[in-house]
Specification:
The chain is mostly helical. It has ten helices and no strands. The longest helix is centred in the middle third of the chain and has 23 residues. The relative contact order is 0.09.
Length: 225
Amino acid sequence: MAVTHHDHDDVDLALRSRSADHDRVRMTGHERRAQLVEVGRALFAEKGFEAVTVEEIAHTAKVSKPVVYEHFGSKDGLYAVVVDREMNYLLESITRALTAEHPRMLLEQAASALFDYIETNTDGFRILLRDSPVATATGNFASLLSDVAQQVEARIANEFAGRGFPKELAPIYAHMFVGMVALTGQWWLDERDTEKDEVVAHLVNLVWNGVAGLDRKPRLISRRS
């Protein structure tokens, strides 16, 4: 019996359907969720939240759109999971690193922990730097920096007490240091010509040697009468 052009189309469609099914690797629910988080993380880091679509996430993961909705409810839901995971990981990394009692070593540990994260989790840091369009369980990047500053604050307060400086100024200096580290990290994210340890060493040099020469009652030169 002769095979018609229509029969050829049916065979071709069937083959393509089986090929697509083969490409969609069967995963457990947990594995599929983890895969979608990784796909979303890479796309959000590259393009930003607004530019990424659910269709693109599904296509990259080789699943249908309903699978994405089934796991996260919406693009916002996936983004919130990605941001929460990065926030928790970074905060835990810095917290684990802060073991020293000597303030200079503490500064090195805090700065090194953030730069280590930037080096090994570049996509995650890019996401954290963007404004989150949804409320997340751990808040935004600014709140994370505030949490880190609070951990540094107690050690700075002890150092100030030993040097005769008011302990109540410790929160100001803690936030200044953490902000300086974060902004320098943002610069280093795309400027990798300088070695990580060299950048951290210069950061600590500026902060520590600046602290060593602090005036007890600093004043703005421009406002001195």
